[in-house]
Write a structure and sequence with these properties.
α3 packs across α5. The N terminus is likely disordered. The protein starts with a helix and ends with a helix. By secondary structure, it is mainly alpha-helical.
């Protein structure tokens, strides 16, 4: 009788282990997170745009307070509202001096003096604003250049891998001669020198 009881206990214990293992596996399988798909092109584009805008906003905040004021004034001076304000001020000044009091009679010398000062100040503000815009554009061009150089290196690495795969597969050399030629690294200095030479020769031919 004793061996039968031991055998029954072992069988019961084994069934419990099996049932527990099945439950744990089922529980783990049920708790697996759903597989997420790749982000869409719109999501990637939105993320890139947001990162670039955040970087530019950070650069603007790092500028001195005076440059921020100049930037806001320049933006306002380039609106239609600023044009209407000027026209309203000139018309009011002329009508008041012609009809109410003659502080600045015709030819409105003091008004011309104010207009000259405004023109000088606006010209300086526009130049400062253009310099800031040129600086931002230079940063964007530099970013484009770095991204293009990274893309060139990535494509070179992929072309080298494709060439090695073609050699391993014993493909005819003429099938990947062009690809092998493109695996050479591009020197930006040489390319820039070629562009300068091409522009100079084009100017000479004119």
């Amino acid at each position: 009788m004793e061996p039968d009881k031991d055998t029954a206990k072992k069988a019961t214990h084994g069934n419990k282990i099996k049932s527990n293992n099945g439950t744990d596996r089922g529980g783990l399988a049920g708790r697996r997170p759903p597989r997420q798909g790749h982000p869409s092109i719109e999501a990637l584009t939105h993320r890139n745009i947001e990162s670039i805008l955040a970087l530019e906003e950070e650069n603007r905040r790092a500028k001195p307070f005076l440059y921020k004021v100049v930037s806001r004034i320049s933006r306002f001076c380039g609106t239609v509202a600023f044009l209407w304000w000027n026209l309203a001020f000139f018309a009011t000044w002329i009508l008041l001096n012609e009809l109410v009091w003659r502080i600045d009679p015709y030819p409105f010398t003091f008004l011309l003096f104010l207009v000259s000062i405004e023109a000088i100040v606006l010209a300086i503000l526009i130049l400062i604003s253009q310099n800031m815009s040129a600086e931002e554009s230079e940063h964007r061009h530099h970013l484009d250049l770095q991204v293009n150089l990274l893309n060139e290196r990535e494509m070179t690495a992929l072309l080298r891998l494709a060439t090695r795969m073609a050699e391993k597969l014993d493909l005819p050399p003429e099938t990947h001669e062009e690809v092998k030629a493109l695996t050479e690294r591009v020197d930006p200095g040489k390319v820039l020198h070629q562009i300068v030479q091409a522009e100079a020769s084009h100017e000479d031919r004119r």
